[in-house]
Fold this sequence. Notes:
The structure holds two protein chains of two kinds.
Chain A: H1 10-27, H2 29-38, E1 45-51, H3 58-68, E2 70-76, H4 80-90, E3 96-100, H5 103-109, E4 113-114, H6 129-132, E5 138-139, E6 142-143, E7 146-157, E8 181-184, H7 187-198, H8 208-221, E9 225-229, H9 232-241, E10 246-249, H10 253-259, E11 266-268, E12 275-284, H11 293-301, H12 304-314, H13 321-330, H14 333-338, E13 351-352, H15 359-370
Parallel strand pairs in A: 1-2, 1-3, 8-9, 8-10, 12-13
Antiparallel strand pairs in A: 3-12, 4-12, 5-6, 7-10, 7-11, 7-12
Helix pairs in contact in A: 3-11, 7-8, 7-15, 8-15, 9-10, 12-13
Chain B: H1 2-23, E1 26-28, E2 31-33, H2 39-46, H3 48-82, H4 85-96, H5 103-114, H6 119-126, H7 140-163, H8 168-176, H9 181-192, H10 194-209, H11 213-219, H12 226-235, H13 239-264, H14 266-270
Antiparallel strand pairs in B: 1-2
Helix pairs in contact in B: 1-13, 3-7, 3-10, 5-11, 7-10, 7-11, 8-9, 10-13, 12-13
Amino acid sequence: MSEEHTALTRAELLKRGGVAAAGLTAFGASDALAATMRGARAENVTLAWLTWFDHYFPQQLKTTLKQTGIACRPKLAPSDSEIYTTIRTTGSQFDIAAMDALWVPYAHKSGLTESFDLNSMKAAKQLYPDARHIPFWKDGSNSMAFPNGWSTIQIYYNPKFVTTKPDSYDALLDPKYKKKIIYENSPETWIAFGGLATGAKVPYNQTIPEIARSKAWLEKIKPNVLKIVNQNFETVNALKDGSCWIGLGNLGVDLRVKAAGGPPIKVAYPKEGLCGWFDGEQMVKASKHKDVFLQFMDSVESQTYWAAQNFLKNGRPMFNEAAYKLLVKWGYKARADAFNYTKPELIFKANLQGPAKNQQQITDAFNEVFGG
Amino acid sequence: MVPTAVYFGLFFFVPFGLIVCFSFWTDSNYTVVHDWTLDNYRYFLENAVYWHTMIATLWVAVAATAITLGVAFPFSYWLSRYVRPGLQKPLLVLVIVPFWTSYLLRVYSWLNILGDEGLVNTALKKAGIIDQPMSLLYHRWTVILVLVYLYFPFAALTLYSSIDRFDWDQLRAAMDLGASPTTALRKILLPQIRAGITTAVIFVLIPILGEYLAPQLVGGIEGVMTGNQIDSFQQGALYARASALSLIVAGFIVLLLILFRKSLASKEAYGA
């Protein structure tokens, strides 16, 4: 199979689905499904899932419906803070909610989610050990969430224009990069970059003086920022067409630019440290269908084929080790390795997204810099 | 009367009342705390950045509205006066064809038109006019251009329905009596379609004041509008801040509607 990711035809998909099913049997996942099937089928149950678009495929949910009788109505989630306030406000309207790293214990501590026995799920056996034992997601022997995907955020640059490797956040302040830098619309992460550059202790949870210093740093970088984008494919496009020379982004931006026919892009890891995120699915405490949560998640998350497809489509590592093995089988080893797929431990060294006690000051600072 | 009151109560006064309440409360730890305060309004009114953005937003909205109407008026005039009736409806359908595609897609398409490797730059390069791509995206004028494209159908349809009712004999009579074409247009046609023009202005100007996606996608850092600031507050679950800023914009819109009220009086517009 070609190293480039190509769209699959329906026939290929079915064929590979068969291979994946065989793979699943090998990993014991079919046992999990069989066990699930042995239990009562939860007919006429529809779960409401507040999650991000890249956490599932519609076909995956169809398979789960077929296997378990549990239907699902996903609702696309906005930011972590909005998911948090949504599940707090809507009570039992949602059964499952996705969230990022440090948001998970925050939601749990707030009494919005309930932990569960991750190890009782056969799907958990497909995960890397690091993902099965995330210390701050532990609630006794239970876990607060089922881990999904992750990425660090690094600096990608076009060496044709950026001749000195930007190995620090301050390197981005060079006036020669005027209107040549691009990153996503995430006020918290922009302030976190500023925090890393100015020595904040916890970049995603800064004190008010630290936010003031980060804001001053953002003022300095602002002339160099061309655009704040909604989706990371816009970063890929801007690096591809040369309208930007530097893009901060998730793992694999360089490969995605190359795949899009763009110029060679290099990666730099700022010495002050990296920001990063990883996310997972939580059981909403007020849910009326908690009894089928494990059955549903087990079915969805043990579909290795779709986990592998998820990586190929959305371009960031998953915590699913079994999917990596499938990717290797499909000929995507080099691609997966280039995304650090096999090194999930890296994300736990990054500065992780989480709630901030001074959220208002963070958004105010961001708006005061980029809003004028 | 009762159904109207229920309708307005449920779909207007209750949500609007909630927004008003939120705007006087505070955000703390991702919770809206019900402490009554003017802090949110004070913050916006005392912070020059928000004033600048508000003025820039107004400027973009006025410029885009003026250009949209400037383009839509001759089109509607031509359609109504010179195109045979059987062809008018198909042409009107063509005007609304873009609505069949998603708003997001329509805005994204401009990235492919104005981008460094977009249609315009590629054509100019192939024609040997430029060597390096021109910077066509991420300016305030780019936002205006895209907004004109997005809102043209609203203005064209409104103006067409107004002009279509006009009796062209009046224009001919004015010119027979010695008025120049411009004078006849200004003194006979425009006063009679004033309500249509006002409606078109409302349909275009007011939604533009709340725009945030188009400025974000094609405006870059230069094109930020008040809607983008509201979006940032919303993203951070700062609903009190977002509500206050939204109400400041809404207050401004109400002011505009009061100003437009006279022009909207159909009695005056049609001389009935």
